[in-house]
Amino acid sequence: MATSARRERGTSPRRERGTSQSLKALLGIRELVFSGEVGPGVRLSEVTLSGRLGISRTPIRAALAQLDQEGVVEAIPSGGYTVRSFTQVDVADAIELRGALEGVAARIAAERGVPAARLQTMHSLLAELDHVVADPKRTDFAVYIARNGEFHDLLHTLSGSETIRRELERVMRLPFAAPNAFITAQAEMPEIRVSLLVAQAQHRAIVNAIEMREGARAEAIAREHARLARTNLDVMIEDTKLINKVPGLSLISG
Amino acid sequence: MATSARRERGTSPRRERGTSQSLKALLGIRELVFSGEVGPGVRLSEVTLSGRLGISRTPIRAALAQLDQEGVVEAIPSGGYTVRSFTQVDVADAIELRGALEGVAARIAAERGVPAARLQTMHSLLAELDHVVADPKRTDFAVYIARNGEFHDLLHTLSGSETIRRELERVMRLPFAAPNAFITAQAEMPEIRVSLLVAQAQHRAIVNAIEMREGARAEAIAREHARLARTNLDVMIEDTKLINKVPGLSLISG
DNA sequence: TTCCCTTAAGTTGTATACAGCGAGTATACG
DNA sequence: CGTATACTCGCTGTATACAACTTAAGGGAA
């Protein structure tokens, strides 16, 4: 009786190109958590999720294990998982961590050198970001978010170390650690323009430092760059109106 | 027919205190990989592992997913996993990463301050390590490894940031990133004594820096401390006789 | 002989059955 | 009326069944 995720045994539609049940479960549960539909501390029952998402327990269970690794969900000693709750300090630490890792990536890139082609791509991205930031009141945030994301992704690969890239990818999944985490909400804030201009200046400085093989400088700027996000976080926490604007902000309690 | 992990349905002995099948699978597969019993690039079939470890596919599958996260095993796009192979550079990067994270932990600990009780524990560990290192030719490596591990574990918590501690715990699971990774082999090397003395001096310096609230210094020393491991790695790679002495060294190819 | 296509075996992804453990509840006793 | 105890329901951990997919092998044609 339990499960209602019933589906005729041999008639399963089968995954339609990359839409595996596991992935659906992962995205579904993430969405459930970040949308605030299930609050912090709430237990995530496998059977309930199974019924709600129309997926059997097996992929649900895999997704929960993954989300546990990502830090979105917390394992209960006696079994099962609850939605994790984050303090403001947790988020600050995650940002600090991202900064530290991006710093290491930037430094190693500078020290070991980067192929010219890669640097060329970086410069292209810088130019595009310049263009987006240039014209006040007409800034397209969707484009900014996309380019900014690409810039950081590329930065993460510049060290040439797959290990470091992997770890950065992990840290970016921590709630609000990603560079773009707050930008959607920032769009409504007056301070946004200054923030973007400063960020872009730092982007340029990081690339320049890497080009000049100035490892220490590259690292220092990358770290400071991440701290921008922290400043934004503080501003945002103050402005309680934004709680519903930023997905997942409801996870922060304390 | 396939599976031979057969076991009477209702007669399962049930886990004997914490020995869940999942844990057994995790440890079993790790052992298989690190012992070199299955070489890099080899595909890990779930049913084969199931039969070999006497565990059903479900916990095996969970363990493989976990090991994928840990970086021990690599997911094949079309499904399944292979044993990952590491280059010497990969290991160096992992050590660098550990150093960077321990550095951040030490700096934050220094900046935010640490409860006196914690510092007291650190000093106790320092004293014990002193004692172990003091007498040449009679050094008990098992004790050193234990205390050294405790020292680093404690250091990881000193920042007070659970996020950072978690991430450090992850990175430590990367092959050879852990502080104790090479010590067993070092026991047979002549340079070991100097290495341990230097390491211990750094331990003291890190604690001192944290006490003095000298964040930058704490970070710098912690990073350099990690680099000791890298030096040891280089020495060890040269000495091919050690390949069978160090568990998992067979994973390094290139 | 070589290349392609068909086919078969093996492997993974997913669903589900089942048993034990735990949390919460109701009942009985002080 | 409060507390302790027994019980029941639900939950997770694990095993297994089944179908699609992947891959490797074998046979046929150029």
TrEMBL record, chains A, B:
<dbReference type="GO" id="GO:0003700">
    <property type="term" value="F:DNA-binding transcription factor activity"/>
</dbReference>
<feature type="domain" description="HTH gntR-type">
    <location>
        <begin position="19"/>
        <end position="86"/>
    </location>
</feature>
<feature type="compositionally biased region" description="Basic and acidic residues">
    <location>
        <begin position="1"/>
        <end position="18"/>
    </location>
</feature>
<keyword id="KW-0804">Transcription</keyword>
<dbReference type="Pfam" id="PF07729">
    <property type="entry name" value="FCD"/>
</dbReference>
<feature type="region of interest" description="Disordered">
    <location>
        <begin position="1"/>
        <end position="20"/>
    </location>
</feature>
<keyword id="KW-0238">DNA-binding</keyword>
<dbReference type="Pfam" id="PF00392">
    <property type="entry name" value="GntR"/>
</dbReference>
<keyword id="KW-0805">Transcription regulation</keyword>
<dbReference type="InterPro" id="IPR036388">
    <property type="entry name" value="WH-like_DNA-bd_sf"/>
</dbReference>
<dbReference type="InterPro" id="IPR000524">
    <property type="entry name" value="Tscrpt_reg_HTH_GntR"/>
</dbReference>
<dbReference type="InterPro" id="IPR008920">
    <property type="entry name" value="TF_FadR/GntR_C"/>
</dbReference>
<protein>
    <submittedName>
        <fullName>GntR family transcriptional regulator, vanillate catabolism transcriptional regulator</fullName>
    </submittedName>
</protein>
<dbReference type="GO" id="GO:0003677">
    <property type="term" value="F:DNA binding"/>
</dbReference>
<dbReference type="InterPro" id="IPR036390">
    <property type="entry name" value="WH_DNA-bd_sf"/>
</dbReference>
<dbReference type="InterPro" id="IPR011711">
    <property type="entry name" value="GntR_C"/>
</dbReference>
